[in-house]
Amino acid sequence: MQMTGLRSGLRWVCAVEHWTTLVLVAVVAVLIGQLIGLAFGATSIVKSPRGTFEALYQASQDGDYEAAFELLDRDGQAQARAMGPEAWRELVDGLSRGRTIAEMGIGSQRNYGQNAVIGVIVEYTDGRTLARTEELVREGTHWRVMWPPGTRSFTETVRKYDPWFGR
Prior knowledge:
The protein is of the alpha+beta class and 167 residues long.
């Protein structure tokens, strides 16, 4: 009796429509599991290098020092801890230079395996425009801004990974 139940079950699964249905149910179950994980903080959506860069400057604008700290690479987090909370606040505030960012235009993004270099034009509400460059490193599944933030030259940073750039 058990063998006939098993055979009829296998015959049912062998039909293409049923097999497709089982695969669809499995995919939906995984998707629901991921959404539940997102809701409870068990998983997160990974930011691109550009998203990480923008999040750093948004944290600077908002004065969210903890969020800015979380976006740094391991070395940067160690350096920020060593410099103390007051100096860290000054550094984060310096990224926006005490002004409100009106617009950020991404000029160039170059990926080099585990590293990325992003050049951006930052326009402030007072009319000033500055070119900024950030170097990012992939740590695990997340992109992190390398230490020290906001101090790089685009050409020199890209030449670290591509010695023939601009020649």
